[in-house]
Amino acid sequence: MKIVIIGAGAMGCLYGAYLSRNHEVIMLDSFDKQVEAINQNGITVLEEDGREENFKNVKACISGEYKEAADLVVVFVKSTFTEDALRDNKKLFGDKTLVMTLQNGAGNDRKIAKYVNKKNIIIGTSKHNSVNMGGGKVRHSGSGETTIGSNLENNKNLDKIQAILEECGFKVEKTNDIQRVIWSKLFVNLSINTFTAITRAPIGSMIENKYAWDFAEKMICEAVDVAEADGTHFSYREVLNMVHHVCEDAGKGYSSMSQDVMNCRLTEIDAINGAIVEQAKLYNVKVHYNSLIVDLIHAIEGAYRYHKE
Questions:
Q1: Pairing label, strands 24-29, 58-62
Q2: Other C-beta atoms within 10 Å of 35: how many?
Q3: What b/e readout covers 212-250, taking b as 16+ CB neighbours within 10 angstroms?
Q4: CATH 3.30.450.20 applies to domain 2-176
Q5: Ketopantoate reductase N-terminal domain: from which residue to which, for each copy (predicted)?
Q6: Which residues in the chain are classed under CATH 3.40.50.720?
Q7: Of 165, 167, 158, 222, which is closest to residue 194 (Cα–Cα)?
Q8: Who has greater pLDDT, 105 or 288?
Q9: DSSP code, position 252
Q10: Domain 179-308 homologous superfamily, CATH
Q11: pLDDT digits (tens, 9 = 90+) for 134-182
């Protein structure tokens, strides 16, 4: 099977490397040095137990330059770049091409639906954590399930994707309630990503720091209220326990947003906490803490120019 990964960052490289065990994998990225490194050396994954494995059977290309239709496209670019990535790579999408998004944020499936039949769209979340070390090398700092679903009932393409992922070493769960999956991922990202981006600390630090966890609780509870207004019920305690467990499991891993801030890159804040703020406006739900965190992250982004001087 020909699999194309759009976005050769930390998570894209992790999934691309594992999938290359049994399939032809092409990585697409806009960063030419990353493309060059992968073509020269493949992808190297440093596992949690200290093992290091090099995956040579991977090719890379500048995003937009690969023109052949794929059997499966996995989208890993930041949500803010989804529209551009899909447009630039539209030749990847044939009538039977399956497209899976494992991105942060909300609404990526609606963007993909402009190019692909809804039955061919798979929406997923990943509990893996990966840190980009540069040059086609990543540190696999946390493991977990990949949960997949569809906006359509009885979508048989879910079985195909499950088989592909499992044969390459991923644990997979299928869900019939994809909206619940999307919200669950948002709860984790809106708290862990944002706070570790501000503190520039590992994910596990959020539950070790009383002040950080107290603020995170307030953001999470606001988001639960928005989910309730949108028609998906969660209890506060259920969600708080879930986020706490993710922090415990991830430990010393760094979130994608904290990596962005440390490298002076624009974040996905508008697709995460910003999505909560926009959704809250539809239902007149108060989200003061999420609004504040969006402004804080944008303020940090605005200060990048002083670090580059």
A1: parallel
A2: 21
A3: bbebbbbbbebbbbbbeeeeeebeeeebbeebbebbeeb
A4: no
A5: 3-150
A6: 2-176
A7: 222
A8: 288
A9: T
A10: N-(1-d-carboxylethyl)-l-norvaline Dehydrogenase; domain 2 (1.10.1040.10)
A11: 999 999 988 999 999 998 989 999 999 999 999 999 999 999 988 888 8
Cα 117 to Cα 97: distance, rounded to the nearest angstrom: 9
Label the pairing between strands 121-126 and 43-46.
Answer: unpaired
Of 236, 263, 243, the residue nearest 127 (C-alpha): 243
Q: Where in the chain is the domain with CATH 1.10.1040.10?
A: 179-308
Two tokens, residue 196: 């570790």
- What type of residue is 123? I
Burial (Cβ within 10 Å: 0-12, 13-18, ≥19) of residue 304: middle
Structure tokens at 72: 């499966």
Q: What tokens does 166 get?
A: 């499992």
Given phi > 0 = left and psi -120 to 50 = alpha, else beta, which region is 252?
alpha
The single-letter code of the amino acid at 220 is: I
Identify the three-state secondary structure at position 33: helix
Contact indicator for 154, 213 with CB cutoff of 8 Å: no
| Amino acid at the residue 29 | D
Question: Residue 211 — very low, low, confident or very high, per pLDDT cuts 50/70/90?
Answer: very high
Where helices occur in the chain by DSSP H, the ranges are 10-19, 32-41, 82-88, 108-112, 157-167, 178-188, 194-199, 205-208, 210-230, 236-250, 256-262, 273-283, 288-302, 304-308
Per-residue CA distances from 46 to 67, 277, 298 (Å): 32, 37, 32
How many C-beta neighbours within 10 Å does residue 2 have?
15
